[in-house]
Fold this sequence. Notes:
Elements: E1 2-8, E2 12-20, H1 30-38, E3 49-53, H2 66-74, E4 83-85
Parallel strand pairs: 2-3
Antiparallel strand pairs: 1-2, 3-4
Amino acid sequence: MAVLGVPDQKWGETVAAVVRLRHGVDEPSEQDLTAFCRDRLARYKLPVRWFVTDRFPQTPSGKIKKFELRDLITRDAGADEPLRPLAGEHRAPREHTAE
Length: 99
């Protein structure tokens, strides 16, 4: 999984996560992934947008090129793009409440 900041009209930037699934594993729902992260992360670190890919763009040393993922997210991805929104992914803003 890669986590990165993506542009947002209201907040300036929000958290997005790109997940690479193992072969033979069913695609999880956005709610399942959010629930998994909610148990392990602070609320402000939870991804707001989720994407799925078959492969990550990598440097020769094997590091994920997050700037390429950000470019794929911010432009309109066509059918042949390696990155797609997670089923049920929506762009509803996170509710901010005082705790």
